[in-house]
Design a protein that fits this description.
The chain is mostly beta strands. The chain contains five helices and 70 strands. The protein has a 22-stranded parallel sheet, covered by helices on one side. Helix 1 packs across helix 2. The protein is flat. It comes from Candidatus Pelethenecus faecipullorum. Keywords: Collagen, Signal. This is Collagen-like protein.
């Protein structure tokens, strides 16, 4: 049947395929479907067509490869856009480049060891032992190699470098090197190589056994004491000794020398960070050839240069005969080269120092303290100070060829401060000045003094020195006509015990002040005279000036008492307190010029005033107290009194007292103006030496306890001003403009 169906199907398919051709040839031929029905097919034409599908045939043979087509265009590279999505071209794929973080998982349970020795997680016994069982014993190892013998080999003459030699049981030897030295033990050095070796070992004490020629360098890790032992150490080409660590130099014999023979090199150079103690030996430059401050002679330098910390004790000698370089240099010749900005410290407790242009030069960044010693100079100065120096003792000697015992100079507030403190000296040469300004300095600097001689010398210095008291002094201070000085009491008392001589006499330019605002100028109660006499230009501020002598008729401060008309004295009082028990607090004499800016002025005398003015005076402020008069305005002998009051508080019964004429002397003229101030007392005039017609007394301001209309008739309110009563006072003010 199947065979028939296949034959039938094939026959039908052929018939179907050729049907159109037959139809063209025969107009009324049967269709393939009809033929199939005639041959027994049952079903519709569609079903018949479906039945015509045969089984899949076997694969045919591959055809020949076709020609390669043209290359396609490159595809677009995906990228991440600003919103975090992947983009292809301009198309947002909507796919995030990075996924969002998942939620944190819960903490897992921490394993622990249960009572049975197993690991547990929660309540679950894992069955795993926390410790494993002991393993089986291993096999016996091979026999070890032991030490059969030890010997020590010494490698140098000092017994410092040693080697342990271990002889082993296998016949071999092993060696271990070590240094066997005791701190404080002194080791002798007879040669350059000895010194080099001992320093390399790191020994603490080296004793020279011969004269040596070498450059010694102490590294920053070393702490060494060198005993010269009477020998001479001379340089080869550099500084003889350069110290970067800690160095002590001694001399057990007393004739030891550290010498340098090379131009621009020192016997000892202590570098930044170095610490040196010199307890013995001579430090010199035996071939020093400096001629003067200009000619170095081809071979000149400091004997000692210190950039670190150095202490010199008794037994040290520093010497050179040159006059070009200083003998000892503490600090920097050019402070700008001190990159560390560290200061150099030199303390001299004793010793002998001789020679050099300056015997001791405390240079840029230097800090110097001299406690004792002998210092001799024949060229310029025993001590030249540029920065900070303190003298507490010592003998300072100089020939008449020298300029001064101490030269001092100020350039700036960092490395050239010019601060010199002289507390005490054993003695000094009197043939030359004790103190002078160093050439090239801006000013003479600051000199702190503790005795009369030093103060007298300090105020004679040129260069506008600032002189600071170090303690209380009883003496008379005189400023020369060409002097220009600032005197700082520094909280101390300056007093005089000489009659007919002021505690301070100023003939030049003087500023008296107190950096603590508690210093006092006074005089002993057994002598009479001014406390301050000014014949020059004087400024006073933050000072207490007083005279408590009830029998002294002298004014506390007298300005221009010589009555010079060609060069009248000028006094400016900026602040302070001024008290006189028996006379005027301040007297401005004929032709004098007085300005009061502030301060407290008081007299207990009923015959005198806080301020007595005979010439030109301006009061800008201050408080004026006393038993009677605050200000006395006087004129006589055709001289003019010009008084201007701009402010102040006048608390005496009589605020202003006028006197024109003086007994039989001819009257002068008065010009008096008030622009401000408070006046608690009356305005009065002398009963016989009254105000004159030519006097001009005008009020243009001020507050008064007494009605100004009740003042002496010559005192008038300026045109355009009126007297207005305010509570218990009367105020002079400008008339309101209509």
């Amino acid at each position: 049947m199947k065979k028939w169906l296949k034959t039938l199907a094939l026959t039908g398919l052929i018939a179907f395929a050729t049907a159109p051709l037959l139809a063209c040839d025969e107009a009324s031929g049967k269709s393939a479907y009809e033929i199939a029905v005639e041959n027994g097919f049952e079903g519709t034409e569609a079903e018949w067509l479906e039945s015509l599908k045969g089984q899949n045939g076997s694969n045919g043979q591959d055809g020949k490869p076709g020609q390669q087509g043209p290359a396609g265009e490159n595809g677009q590279t995906p990228y991440i856009g600003e919103n975090g999505n992947w983009f292809i071209g301009t198309t947002d794929t909507g796919i995030k480049a990075e996924g969002t973080d998942g939620a944190d998982g819960e903490n897992g349970q921490t394993p622990y060891i249960g009572e049975n020795g197993n690991w547990f997680i929660g309540t679950t016994d894992t069955g795993v032992k926390a410790e494993g069982t002991d393993g089986a014993d291993g096999e016996d190892g091979e026999d070890g190699i032991g030490i059969q013998g030890i010997s020590i080999r010494t490698n140098d003459k000092w017994g410092i470098s040693k080697t342990y030699v271990f002889t082993m049981s296998d016949g071999t030897t092993r060696e271990v090197d070590f240094l066997d030295m005791v701190y404080g033990t002194e080791y002798g050095a007879a040669s350059k190589s000895d010194v080099t070796t001992l320093l390399a070992y790191g020994v603490s004490h080296i004793k020279l056994m011969n004269d040596l020629v070498m450059d010694v360098v102490i590294e920053d890790t070393m702490d060494v004491t060198i005993n010269l032992n009477g020998h001479t150490l001379t340089n080869e080409s550099d500084h003889t000794i350069v110290n970067n660590g800690q160095l002590t130099v001694t001399d057990s014999v007393g004739t030891g020398v550290v010498d340098n023979v090379t131009h621009a090199k020192a016997a000892l150079s202590n570098e930044v960070g170095g610490v040196v103690v010199l307890a013995g030996g001579m430090f010199t430059r035996s071939k020093e050839n400096g001629k003067n401050s200009i000619e170095n002679g081809g071979n000149s330098y400091y004997a000692i240069r210190n950039y670190g910390e150095m202490t010199m004790e008794d037994g040290v000698v520093v010497y050179q005969n040159g006059r070009y370089s200083s003998l000892v240099e503490n600090g920097w010749y050019d402070g700008n080269k001190n990159e560390s900005k560290q200061e150099a410290y030199l303390t001299i407790n004793g010793g002998h120092f001789e020679g050099g242009l300056n015997t001791i030069k405390n240079d840029d960044w230097g800090n110097l303290v001299i406690q004792g010693g002998t210092f001799t100079n024949v060229a310029q100065a025993v001590v030249l100070n540029w920065n900070v120096a303190e003298i507490n003792g010592g003998l300072f000697q100089a020939s008449q060829e020298a300029t001064a015992i101490f030269l001092n100079g100020y350039l700036n507030d960092t490395m050239d401060q010019g601060k010199l403190t002289i507390v005490a000296m054993d003695d000094y040469s009197k043939e030359i000045p004790l103190l002078m300004q160093m050439g090239g300095s801006t000013t003479a600097g600051t000199i702190t003094v503790f005795d009369e001689e030093t103060l007298d010398s300090a105020v004679l210095m040129s260069g506008k020195p600032t002189v600071v008291l170090g303690n209380d002094l009883v003496m008379n201070v005189e400023i020369a006509e060409k002097g220009n000085v600032t005197l700082d009491l520094n909280g101390h008392t300056l007093s005089s015990d000489q009659a007919r001589k002021a505690t301070i006499l100023n003939n030049g330019q003087l500023t008296v002040m107190d950096s603590t605002a508690s210093g006092t100028i006074t005089r002993e109660t057994t002598s009479n005279y001014y406390v301050i006499q000014n014949e020059g230009i004087l400024t006073i501020k933050d000072v207490n000036v007083k005279n408590e002598n009830l029998s002294d008729p002298s004014s506390l401060i007298a300005n221009n008492p010589s009555c010079s008309s060609e060069n009248p004295a000028e006094l400016v009082i900026e602040s302070g307190t001024y008290y006189s028990a028996a006379s005027n607090a301040v007297k401005n004499d004929e032709y004098g010029i007085l300005t009061i800016k502030d301060g407290i002025f008081e007299t207990k005398s009923t015959l005198h005033a806080s301020i007595q003015n005979w010439a030109t005076m301006t009061i800008d402020g201050g408080k004026f107290k006393g038993s009677y008069q605050a200000v006395t305005v006087c004129a006589y002998m055709k001289q003019q009194n010009k008084t201007v009051i701009n402010g102040g508080y006048f608390a005496t019964p009589v605020s202003i007292y006028f006197r024109n004429g003086y007994d039989s002397y001819e009257a002068g003229s008065i010009s008096f103006e008030i622009y401000g101030g408070t006046f608690e007392g009356r305005f009065e005039e002398h009963p016989t030496d009254t105000l004159k017609e030519t006097d001009s007394l005008v009020l243009k301001g001020g507050t008064y306890a007494q009605n100004p209309t009740e003042f002496p008739t010559k005192i008038v309110v300026a045109e355009g001003y009126t007297v207005q009563q305010q509570d218990e006072y009367y105020v002079i003010a400008k008339t309101d403009l209509q």
